[in-house]
Amino acid sequence: MAQTHSLTAVVRDRAGKGAARAVRRQGLVPGVIYGGKQEPQLVSLIYKDLMKEVETGRFLSTIYDLQVDGQTVQVLPRDVQFEPVRDFLIHVDFLRIAKDSHVTVSVPVVFINDESAPGIKRGGVLNIVRHEIELDCPADNIPEEITIDLTGADIGDSIHISAVKLPAGAKPTITDRDFTIATIAVPAAGVEEAAPAEGGEEEAS
Fold this sequence. Notes:
Number of strands: 13
Helix content: 10-25%
Radius of gyration: 25 Å
Structural class: mainly beta
Strand content: 35-45%
Mean pLDDT: 86
Shape: elongated
Order of helices and strands: EHEEHEEEEHEEEEEE
Distance between the termini: 78 Å
Number of domains: 2
Largest sheet: 6 strands, mixed, barrel
């Protein structure tokens, strides 16, 4: 299950582009907290603290205890926006987590024991079809990652979602097929060509 992390935010009073630019000039990132059958709440967060979390690569699948002016709000990040030219973080959205709620998250896939895969030992290539899997799961039981054991995988084998053990209550959002996550493919060079047999060509008489 994903760990709960902490971030600190302060309430901001004004919305709009001008107010957002003013917040950014202070080294802060404007954001909003919504959901939970409550009114949206405008907040701002310290840029460097927020960016540190975003750079983990798991920001959008991590539950946070957001400290907002002395109150703790449990949230799940739902969107981060960047300024397209400078790749500068400019806005973040958080969803309030209500008791017994379900959320849709993309969870990274991690492969282990590749040294125990006969296909890879023989030169096969791990072809990853999905680096992340979108799951519907309880908000209090979001996996940090989905681990796939490659032990015994041979060239030509495919790993499907049906072979993956998911946390209790979690299920893939794609339900109409047993989709492929990865395959062990033949090396790009293909099968080595057989060496010519000795004396294969007749000598001229």
